[in-house]
Structures are given as C-alpha cells and as structure tokens.
Specification:
about 325 residues, globular, Phage tail protein beta-alpha-beta fold
Length: about 325
C-alpha cells in the first residue's frame, strides 16, 4: 500500500473508529497505524474531543473549520518540494473535513430519538425515564432512546458506568457494552467496557446479572451480588469471578482498600480514581507493602498518609506527583 493509499484508508476509518463500528480486522490495522504514527494518534485524540462533545442539534461551520486549518498551514510550503510537515498538515486538513462531513451524517442518523451523556473530567449522574440511576465514569459515554421505557430498555455504553436498574419483570434492561451484552431485571452493578481494555468486566452489588458475548449470545454467565465476571474480547471467553474486587467501584465510592498491597498497586488505583499522575522514582519503593483504607479522602490526605507511612519524599513537577525514598525493609 502506497503512502497516499495508506492515508486514504486511515481517513476512511476514522469516523467508524470513533463510533465503534470497525470490524476486528479493521480495528487491528487502525491501532497499528496509531501506534506507528504519533501524529495520527494526536489527530484522533483531537477528533475524539469533537466527537464526544457533540450534542443533538449542534451544527458545525465547515468554512470556519477550514479557515482555522489554513492558518496552521506553513506559508513557506508552496513550492514543488513538499516537506513532510506540510504533507502532514494537508492530510490533517483532509481528515478534519472528511471526519466532520461523515460525522454529520452518522451523528444525525444516530441521534434521531436518542440521548447521549458524555462525562469529561468528572463522573456524571443521570436518571433514565424508567427510574434507572446511572453514574457515568469520567471519559465515558452513555447513549439511549428517548422512549426507553416504552419500546425497550437498552442503552449503549462506551467506557465505564455504575447502574442501579429500576426493576421491571416485563422488560429486561440491556446494556450494549461493545463486544458483550449485559441483561438484568433490577439490580445494581458496575460495567467497565473501555474500548482499549481486552475485557469487559462486571461487578455486581445486588441482584443477578447475565452477560454474554454479542457474537454468541447462547453462552452466558450469571453473576450474583458480591461476585463478578469478564468477557475476553480476543479469546471470546466468559469467566465467572466468585469474589469481586472491592476496589472495582472506588471511582464511584471514593473508598480504597489496601491489604498488604504494593505501592505500585496503590499508585495505580489512586491515579485512576483521582485522575492524577503519580510516578514512583525508585523502583525499590514500588514493591513496598501497605495496609490502609481510605474513605472519601482528598488526594492530599492520601498522599500525606503514604508519605508518612513509607517515609517518602514527595515532589511535584508539572502534572506529575513524584514519590522517592530509600525503599522498605524486607
């Protein structure tokens, strides 16, 4: 495939990637392209912001978008010799216009009678017409019909959300989580269905939850309160988890439980829950164990406990929180 053909193929797949409509083969090729070209990844990240911020009824001024892109084009790149940066800008311009045009068609067709909730840097709470309560985690989105309680109870989740489903024995509640389908009558549970994760994960707080792969709905697993399950997208395998991780909904409860957990594990969960960037500077610190419970504590309070417990030196550099020290005694 030539460079020009490669870019055309990439352009063709951008909007379908953002809407979650790529086949496994297309998705694999697209992800390889993103991994091999930081410029393409940066473009897709920018388009995702446009995609996720779109709301029904919002229109786009394509002339204004084009003018904005033209201002970014290098003015010196007008001769026969086209530099790589210039070519990249031209590709960017074509991608933006192509995306906006195709996006307009796709989004209009999908938002007829539909509502969409998009969470940015903070979780968003929403109550559906049937009384179901949903908390959509940061950087996630939920899409559902405005006639949710009349025709069917089905929602489409991209990312992570916690559900407290209003019970209705005549109409099951179904969540399309990309590769997996989740079905309940009335219960509370968490669904982690981020596209980049190899699995779709369920944690059940109350009631019963059934999950199946979207491609093969004959096989399913049923999870009860205190348990969970997962669906491996690549292997297409369902797995019951008898005891669920107490930290699986820490993003919602702000309750973090650590029992002889390593500092690496602690930092990873705190980063996820508080949307921060803790970096362990000394690798010997990473395996230091800590047992502690945090209940709705501020980030500063948590850092202070870690600092005093493990005798850490804490510094901030930009958006990084750096932890350093001599390590721990075995």
């Amino acid at each position: 495939m030539s460079v020009e053909e490669n870019h055309r193929e990439f352009d063709r797949l951008v909007s379908r990637y953002l809407s979650g409509e790529l086949s496994p083969e297309e998705l694999s090729w697209f992800q390889v392209e993103l991994g091999a070209d930081p410029a393409k990844q940066a473009l897709v990240d920018e388009y995702r912001l446009i995609w996720d911020s779109a709301v029904p009824g919002q229109s786009y001024d394509l002339d204004a978008e084009w003018d904005l892109i033209q201002k970014k084009l290098p003015s010196a790149s007008r001769g026969k010799a086209r530099s790589l940066p210039y070519y990249s800008y031209r590709i960017a311009a074509v991608l933006v216009l192509g995306l906006l045009l195709s996006f307009s068609l796709i989004y209009v067709s999908r938002t007829v009678g539909m509502e969409r909730v998009v969470a940015g840097n903070e979780p968003v709470e929403v109550v559906l017409k049937d009384g179901t309560e949903v908390i959509v985690n940061r950087h996630s989105s939920l899409r559902y019909s405005r006639k949710l309680d009349q025709e069917e109870r089905k929602v489409f989740l991209s990312g992570e959300a916690w559900f407290d489903v209003a019970r209705d024995t005549t109409m099951p509640f179904v969540i399309d989580a990309g590769a997996a389908l989740v079905e309940v009558l009335g219960t509370s549970f968490n669904v982690n269905a981020h596209k980049d994760n190899p699995t779709v994960e369920i944690t059940v707080e109350s009631g019963l939850v059934a999950m199946s792969g979207k491609e093969d709905q004959k096989d399913l697993i049923v999870m009860k309160a205190g348990s969970g399950g997962s669906y491996n997208k690549n292997q297409k395998e369902l797995k019951l988890i008898p005891t669920s991780d107490p930290n699986s909904i820490s993003w919602k409860t702000r309750e973090l439980f650590f029992d002889a957990s390593t500092l690496r594990e602690v930092a990873a969960l705190v980063n996820s829950v508080y949307d921060t960037h803790i970096v362990i500077m000394n690798e010997e610190l990473a395996s230091c164990p800590i047992t502690v419970t945090f209940r709705d504590q501020t980030l500063d309070a948590i850092l202070k406990v870690l600092e005093l417990t493990l005798d850490l030196q804490l510094t901030r550099e930009g958006d990084e929180i750096r932890l350093d020290g001599e390590g721990c005694v075995e």
